[in-house]
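Letters spell out the chain; backbone shape is given numerically. Both lines appear below:
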Amino acid sequence: MGNVMKAGRDFADTVALRALGWLVGNEELLPVFLGASGLAPDEIRQRAADPVFLRSVLDFLLMDDTWVVAFCDSAGLDYTDPMAARRALPGGEEAHWT
């Protein structure tokens, strides 16, 4: 995907929704995600339009490099795309702790 597109909100929403779809289809990771998020399976669809929830999906995915690689390989994305998408979502700016 192009660099201009990576900075945009549409790009971020698309990547996050694709990541959510990948998680929902992953029988091993879905229970881990549900446990980490505290959501019931039927709540996922209701929350899918919420940018804060989408950011949490990307935060979860970004916890493990093997998950990032597996998702990106299956989605045809660059390995840096999930982090770029996370940064483009509201509140996704990197925190500066200095």
